[in-house]
């Protein structure tokens, strides 16, 4: 295994050079450069334009430009943004964090919901619940994300007008002002339910553990969700009553800002995660049906093992192997953003910044995003291969 890891790490070096060089050349194939727009303006001084091109290094040959950019990469410098006249990381850093909020929440939602539903549908195939889940999955796959985002915005406007309250946000990531009084009163009303749910699931967890039984996935999920909800409400309960009713976002306490971002992210996460949830649910169902028909599953049942042990210990472990293989795409997906959904729902993520950089031919912003994505993709593939070897004992690397 150690030799395999070393070989894979060495293979990353030529892969990185090849990917970045190809991306740099493809970007340069576009006609013109960042300064070309100024040359088309007859009011601009030709000498000033030439000096600007020289200052930005755009007058040098492509190999020299690539070599200078590559030398900066080895020093942790992604280059200079031609549009903002500042370090590339200062331009894309916050945008990446904004996109990660969406992608991390959507990924958690997809895996926590799709895998249990897929397992349930496989065990109860061709029943009414299975057929309902199948129809919902096909709808989720058929509706494009950007169109679903428009539907969600329409739903938010309609619901807010109907109730004369802001039930759902309409675009953006934060509010200019936060109503801390409303947050505190909502926490006071919801906290008893969250605490009650935590105690109920904790009792179920303790009861099953005492009898020597493994707590089910539903017990684990309920305990985590209700427990985290209870903890999130402690801050507004303790600090909220002593704060003003209304504060600017930048002056509000941390718990209020986190709550506001999560509130704005809720409809966007639903839109982003719908297609992934539908697809993963169908794949999980198909994998479980295939594994449950294998000979070793029939042998396990013939030995008298309980159905829960057969399904969750023997079948599920082999059925999730394709999902572990897909982990390599999760890391670049974290900064890849939510695509056109970010544009549709006015979320300040990485996709709007990338579209702006492409429009302005801001080469080093584009290259910075490609570089980070390439590195995360390579690292993710190595991690995925190692996890596959750990989960599936049939895989051996010599």
What can you see in these coordinates?
74% of the residues lie in helices and 3% in strands. With 398 residues, it is mainly alpha-helical. Helix 5 crosses helix 10, helix 5 (88-123) packs parallel to helix 17 (363-391) and helix 14 (330-336) runs antiparallel to helix 17 (363-391). The chain has helices at residues 2-28, 36-39, 46-55, 62-74, 88-123, 128-142, 145-163, 180-210, 217-239, 254-292, 295-302, 307-319, 321-325, 330-336, 340-344, 350-360, 363-391, and strands at 80-81, 86-87, 177-179, 246-248. The chain has 17 helices and 4 strands.
Oligomer: single chain
Count of all domains:
1
Roughly what percent helix? over 70%
Sheet with most strands: strand arrangement: 1-2
Please compute the radius of gyration using only Cα atoms.
26 Å
Order of helices and strands: HHHHEEHHHEHHEHHHHHHHH
Task: Tell me briefly what this model is.
By secondary structure, this protein is mostly helical. It is built from 17 helices and 4 strands.
Helix and strand arrangement:
Blueprint (H helix, E strand, L loop, with lengths): L1 H27 L7 H4 L6 H10 L6 H13 L5 E2 L4 E2 H36 L4 H15 L2 H19 L13 E3 H31 L6 H23 L6 E3 L5 H39 L2 H8 L4 H13 L1 H5 L4 H7 L3 H5 L5 H11 L2 H29 L7
Antiparallel strand pairs: 1-2, 3-4
Helix pairs in contact: 1-17, 5-6, 5-10, 5-14, 5-17, 6-10, 7-10, 8-9, 10-12, 14-17
